[in-house]
Design goal:
Elements lengths: L8 E6 L2 E6 L24 E6 L6 H4 L24 E5 L15 H8 L13 H9 L8 E4 L9 E3 L2 E2 L6 H9 L15 H12 L1 H10 L2 H24 L24 H20 L5 E5 L16 H7 L10 H22 L2 E2 L2 E2 L4 E6 L15 E5 L8 E4 L6 H10 L24
Parallel strand pairs: 3-8, 3-11, 4-13, 5-8
Antiparallel strand pairs: 1-2, 4-12, 6-7, 9-10, 11-12
């Protein structure tokens, strides 16, 4: 029999209408290692995402006493012990200010994500996730997916100044967006293009020539504005084109059921419930190639999380709660910091629960988790905590590294290289660097 690929279809007709039937993921599609499709050599895709929690950490409860692989997990990281070998911890890396005022809870987050000392959200540069999505997100229905789990519609994913990629805050809304209208079950026995998508695709294709002519006759500034506008049009074209092709079958994929209605607020236990539901849906979306890039906001950088029965938020406590004289830190603030790490562990649980190839979905993801500051009471952007999980065979994990005041842009540069982007340096001013973190690259 001649070679077949995962795109092989069985074609026929039913009552005069053309139909196509996709094949399941067969062993012959994979190489001996279970990591690549044998017929084409195309690898199981590597995904990229970010996971953000607000208001930093308690340094003595988070930073390991030693570097390297033999470190002891401090108290607040103990929930992550099952993922020790799949985590790289980074402490002591800074956002450099270069005389730019530190805008609390904004500068640290965007400095880390753009490599630029920025005063506010008007940063004129794409965030790290957008750079990666431009490289790996073109062949998916969604260029990226953004979710916020604490009841606040916010996102730290930006293509350009003042234009965040909108986030979903409801598990049900996220489910409907991914698995509602337009979703094609990759393991369905038959496929027929939706005429709705065929019409829209034809309309966009019809104006392609005019778009190209317009770009040739306008000035440089207008070309830049038009390019930003047409980026969204090109994304729509790509999404429509994908809807006109049968999706590749996905091993072990089970269509999730609709999640229940939940309380969308900032009470910690409600947020944990929302987060678990949305993490599970996102994992299924990654599994069936709806997207390869994602951004999860567990809590806003000015963390609005609160305990049950109280109105005082995590952020307020960082400024108003006295330091416990026996503990040496703010007790309540420490509780929120620890619960954030439990949520991070639960997110990894969802990725690790899905088998893929010879490993799990987590093995085929690179996830950057970070906060917006180190010590929230001081709005410090020195030593912002960060972690990298997963990595497949491109990223090396299982260690703790102290940055010793190096710019955190070193981490962003290295992650781009790990995701296959040809970039030799990244950042501006004191954040400009060509120093790859070689310990992180496999």
């Amino acid at each position: 029999m001649s070679k077949i690929s995962r795109r092989t279809l069985l074609r026929g007709a039913v009552r005069g209408a053309a139909v196509s039937v996709a094949l399941p993921l067969l062993n012959c599609f994979l190489n001996d290692g279970g990591k690549a499709f044998a017929a084409t050599g195309q690898r199981i895709p590597l995904r990229f995402g970010t996971w953000v929690w607000g208001c930093g950490f308690i340094p003595e409860k988070w930073i390991p006493a030693t570097t390297g692989s033999a470190y002891v997990m401090p108290e607040h990281l103990v929930p992550l012990e099952p993922y020790r070998d799949q985590l790289a911890l980074f402490s002591g890396f800074d956002v450099k200010l270069d005389g730019v005022p530190n805008k609390p809870h904004i500068t640290g987050c965007f400095g880390l994500r753009t490599g630029i000392p920025v005063p506010d959200t008007n940063v004129k540069a794409p965030t790290l996730d957008v750079l990666v999505s431009d490289a790996i997100g073109r062949d998916t229905r969604f260029r990226s997916l953004e979710i916020s789990t604490s009841g606040i519609q916010r996102s730290y994913s930006y293509r350009t100044a003042g234009s965040p990629n909108p986030s979903e805050i409801s598990p049900l809304a996220l489910y409907q967006r991914i698995f509602g209208e337009g979703f094609q079950d990759p393991n369905s026995m038959a496929f027929k293009p939706d005429p709705h998508y065929m019409v829209h695709h034809s309309v966009l294709s019809a104006v392609a020539d005019d778009r190209q002519r317009l770009m040739k006759i306008v000035g440089a500034e207008d070309r830049q504005r038009l390019d930003e506008y047409f980026t969204s049009v090109r994304q729509l074209e790509q999404q429509l084109a994908l809807q006109l092709e049968p999706p590749a079958p996905v091993e072990n994929f089970v269509m999730p059921g609709a999640p229940p209605e939940v309380t969308l607020d900032s009470e910690m236990e409600n947020v944990m419930t929302t987060h678990r539901l949305m993490a599970g849906l996102l994992a299924r979306a990654l599994q069936c190639n709806q997207t390869r890039v994602f951004n999860v906001l567990f809590s806003d950088t000015t963390s609005n999380l609160r305990r049950s029965g109280t109105t005082t938020t995590h952020h307020t406590l960082t400024h108003e709660e006295p330091v416990d004289p026996q503990l040496g830190y703010q007790r309540e603030v420490g509780w929120f910091a620890q619960r954030s790490m439990v949520a991070w562990r639960e997110f990894l649980d969802e990725l690790a629960a899905i088998p893929e190839g010879d490993g799990t979905l987590l093995d085929n993801c690179v996830v950057l988790a970070h906060s917006d500051c180190s010590i929230a009471k001081a709005h410090a952007v020195e030593g912002i905590p960060a972690m990298v999980a997963g990595g497949g065979d491109r990223i090396r994990t299982g260690f703790h590294m102290a940055g010793k005041g190096d710019p955190v842009s070193r981490l962003g540069l290295t992650l781009q290289q790990g995701m296959g982007i040809q970039v030799e340096r990244w950042g501006t001013l004191s954040m400009d660097t060509n120093r790859t973190i070689t310990e992180l690259l496999a």
